[in-house]
């Protein structure tokens, strides 16, 4: 199996497991940890792609809430103090990525002349 | 109380913020236009490859061969695809047509599908069902044997033949690497774009040695500019490069 196939297989496994987690969470788990979701079903398919992507986080949050281990209130305190720094860093990062990408662009080997190493049957 | 102006989307703009907002808006529009034009201008020409839907579906008769990717040696063509031409074949999307045509290897068949064309490079996306693939009565005609052209050292890029021929724009380069690898995993025929024409052709179908598929090592360097060696042969008007994976090097 080459690297590309390995990556592809990894993504497929990740999403397959995510689909399993989503099936359980959206039918059982969400009712147990979010009283506002009880009796509401139409929105649940909308969560499917997101849960498939971040299923480890979903499982971890589910466990924390079920066991009462997390500080739920703290989760809703907006981390505004870091917004400005993060925004500047993200903008600078995007700019740096574009500039570095343009600087390091490989050059098409237009000058390379195809060379015949040996003739037919040699 | 602090009289600092505060922007609220559904209220009139505070006087103290009007000039700032207008200048920021204009600056952003100008900046984004500049960035867009700059990035666009630095990109390579994606080429003229495209699905030729304007030709509608084409039907040609020929003999299926595997090299090991499926090709059709056209024996009875039309005004756009002449007899003697060799067509690379693909299924819908990123899937091969291998399993459909495998039982008909060496047989005379009529294929119907949409043509993808980029210069001299072309490929047929065979239509689904019996409409796309029909066995033709009668024996397959004798075709010219593959013509060996010796061993060559080449520089260029390995791409997937379908995107390069026009399914995607751009259909090559690093930005297209992941898509190309998915196509190649789906068994779409790979194509090598040579730095300069080889035996009159800039595009060569590429495979592994001794009738094998593209070597695993090649997948890591798809979309990059590489140097490699391989044995060249001609089937109809299609050049096939049987690359030696051990000789493959990334060009700096």
From TrEMBL, chain A:
The reply to whether Membrane figures as a keyword in the UniProt entry is yes
Query: Which keywords, in A-to-Z order, does the entry hold?
Result: Membrane, Transmembrane, Transmembrane helix
Where exactly are the transmembrane stretches of this chain?
Answer: 12-30, 42-63, 83-103
Q: What is this protein called?
A: Uncharacterized protein
Organism of origin:
Actibacterium mucosum KCTC 23349
TrEMBL record, chain B:
| Domain of life where this protein originates | Bacteria
Residue ranges spanning the membrane: these are 20-42
**Per UniProt, which keywords does this protein have?**
Membrane, Transmembrane, Transmembrane helix
Q: What name is this protein filed under?
A: Uncharacterized protein
């Amino acid at each position: 199996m080459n690297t590309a196939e390995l990556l592809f297989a990894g993504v497929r496994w990740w999403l397959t497991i995510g689909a399993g987690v989503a099936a359980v969470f959206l039918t059982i788990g969400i009712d147990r940890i979010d009283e506002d979701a009880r009796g509401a079903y139409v929105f649940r398919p909308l969560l499917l792609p997101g849960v498939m992507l971040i299923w480890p986080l979903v499982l971890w949050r589910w466990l924390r809430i079920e066991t009462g281990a997390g500080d739920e209130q703290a989760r809703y305190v907006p981390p505004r103090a870091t917004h400005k720094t993060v925004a500047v860093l993200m903008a600078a990062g995007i700019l740096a990525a574009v500039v570095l990408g343009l600087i390091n662009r490989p050059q098409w080997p237009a000058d390379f002349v195809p060379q015949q190493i040996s003739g037919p049957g040699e | 109380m602090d009289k600092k102006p505060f922007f609220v989307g559904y209220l009139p703009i505070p006087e103290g913020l009007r000039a700032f907002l207008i200048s920021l808006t204009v600056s952003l529009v100008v900046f984004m236009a500049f960035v867009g034009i700059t990035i666009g201008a630095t990109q390579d020409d994606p080429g003229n490859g495209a699905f030729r839907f304007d030709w509608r579906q084409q039907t040609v008769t020929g003999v299926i061969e595997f090299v090991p990717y499926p090709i059709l040696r056209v024996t009875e063509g039309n005004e756009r695809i002449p007899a003697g031409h060799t067509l690379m074949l693909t299924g819908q999307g990123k899937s091969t047509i291998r399993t459909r045509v495998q039982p008909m290897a060496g047989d005379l068949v009529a294929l119907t599908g949409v043509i993808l064309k980029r210069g001299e490079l072309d490929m047929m996306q065979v239509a689904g069902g019996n409409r796309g693939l029909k066995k033709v009565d009668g024996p397959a005609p004798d075709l010219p044997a593959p013509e060996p052209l010796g061993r060559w050292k080449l520089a260029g890029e390995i791409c997937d033949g379908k995107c390069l021929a026009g399914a995607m724009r751009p259909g090559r380069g690093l930005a297209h690497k992941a898509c190309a690898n998915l196509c190649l995993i789906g068994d779409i025929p790979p194509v090598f774009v040579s730095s300069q024409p080889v035996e009159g052709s800039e595009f060569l179908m590429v495979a592994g040695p001794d009738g094998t598929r593209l070597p695993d090592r090649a997948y890591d360097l798809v979309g990059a500019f590489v140097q490699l060696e391989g044995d060249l042969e001609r089937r109809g008007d299609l050049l096939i490069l049987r690359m030696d994976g051990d000789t493959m090097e990334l060009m700096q």
